[in-house]
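User: Predict the complex with pyridoxal-5'-phosphate.
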Amino acid sequence: MSKVYLNGEFLPIDEAKISVLDRGFIFGDGVYEVIPVYGSRLFRGSHHLQRLINGLKAIRITNPLSDIEWIKILEKLIQQNGGGDQSLYLQVTRGIAPRDHRFPEPISPTIFAMSTPLTEADLDKQTGISAVTLEDNRWLRCNIKSISLLPNILLKQQAYDAEGGEALLLRNGFVTEGASSNIIVLKDDTLITPPKSEHLLPGITRDLVIELCHTHNIPYELRAIPQAELFEADEVWVTSSTKEIIPIISIDKHAVGDGRVGNGWRKISQLYREYKQSFREGRAE
Ligand SMILES: Cc1ncc(COP(=O)(O)O)c(C=O)c1O
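Assistant: Here is the predicted structure with pyridoxal-5'-phosphate placed in the model:
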């Protein structure tokens, strides 16, 4: 039975209970993080923690813990679940109060964290996935990792219904990101990804890919990507913490490039793997 953390306690998942008045349950009023763990260590832990802190600030929840306290909880959770490789889910909601849109008088945020097995998306990586484009009808604060994911869920399901593995979202004719990932386009050996804005989540994996480009002198551009460029790209990838870098081989049933996983993806994936290996060996954060 997996162990979870809830408001100061570590306990078996089926013993963890929250009030029906929790504002996460009633309003989706909270933020979350998904953090990969390799060799019992938090991968890009400080980046995830910073994004959590930014999210709390953006939705005006006072950060209830110091950095050291957050890390201690997560490290203990990793140990309680047997160490090794895991995926941690961490959620903070505004807490429990009678239902009212207005913020309640200061209350304690609800802090919940659980561990799930880290399933590497190996098949998706080998074969690539297909994607469909959909109108990005989410709100204008997509940089907040909000637990209110209904728009993303509906878009993702719409993609699945159309036999796509991901929805690539378009706002005013430009691609913003995937329903649960960031997007990177490769054209003439240059990586292109939209700059950070309120239209997309500042992805930790996206940042790492950019960092790798920087380190290895791979050309990249941070700029808006018009829809047409998706269909002219040599390669298109989506990134996320647990799935890493996934090649998209078709969009709206049109082949991307030659319709197969490309060499650009192979190269960046190799660098990503090497980085992970150096992390496991304690040479990288
Ligand atoms: C909407 C959205 N964009 C981007 C990402 C990728 O972010 P990260 O690389 O930090 O996992 C996610 C991950 O869940 C996401 O849900």
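Residues 34, 152, 177, 180-182, 201, 203-206, 239-241 surround pyridoxal-5'-phosphate (CB under 6 Å).
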